């Protein structure tokens, strides 16, 4: 029987601010409630919503102050009503919070099994990307084999995962990133045309490489003035999906372009979704994306692994846009 400690190390923001406000604090080990599992964490993924939480952004009700929206590890206990996960199982979990810790609580229905070929630490880079990509690229964007997809900010954790999934689905991927080293990395992931946003205009490049047709789907995390340019680069019937708005949430649209091309604009954000909706997505991901992970066609690209007590440095990497792929916090107890 595995001995359970009474306390665990966690990372919180002691007050709203920069990375320097993050600190390790001890907390009591939680118990798994009905429908929940207790996970001994191998690693946690670091995501931009964590940076927003640290900075003081409003949180959903009853959210823990321990940061971390995804983790992977070994189940050590299950709550009442959990029948499809058992102690000893390797899982990767989408969380409402609490991943920056030696142990975390996850809703059992939001957990995914870790394929045998995927190291447990690396699996921590999957949940946020998998839930985001499946819902936005395939459900909202309705990406099909043979279509062209434009992915902005493609060197991010979600971007690198989206590239591989789109490629595995038979789509042609056009991706943008900043800098020659990032563009070179994208080419190794199956990108059909990689664009350095510092050197090239993506609207012109897309017009040239698609013979004026444009792209069928845009996955955009830039917002602002990019949206109008995205629409100019889209094919008739194209679908524009907004993930974020790093250049601002307010945009100006020419409705004539929208109507003439029969374009659609949609968006979503993962954290506020209901538990039931996340459980639905988990079922779809098990059937659609996990086989790609199991074959190695898709896997999380890991930029850096840092120990839990270096969470501040992990945040600095993301804030400086230095990463190509995911940044992970690893736990020494594994």
From TrEMBL:
InterPro entries referenced in this protein's UniProt entry, alphabetically: ADH-like_C, ADH-like_N, ER, GroES-like_sf, NAD(P)-bd_dom_sf, Quinone_OxRdtase_PIG3
Keyword Acetylation in annotation: no
UniProt xrefs under SMART domains: PKS_ER
Entry keywords, A to Z: NADP, Oxidoreductase
Gene Ontology MF terms: NADPH binding; oxidoreductase activity, acting on NAD(P)H
Domain (Enoyl reductase (ER)): residue spans on this chain: 17-329
Entry keyword annotation includes Oxidoreductase: yes
Domain of life: Bacteria
UniProt cross-references to Gene3D superfamilies, sorted A to Z: Medium-chain alcohol dehydrogenases, catalytic domain, NAD(P)-binding Rossmann-like Domain
NCBIfam families: quinone_pig3 (TIGR02824)
PANTHER family: OS02G0805600 PROTEIN, QUINONE OXIDOREDUCTASE PIG3-RELATED
Protein name: Zinc-binding dehydrogenase
Organism in which the protein naturally occurs: Stutzerimonas stutzeri (Pseudomonas stutzeri)
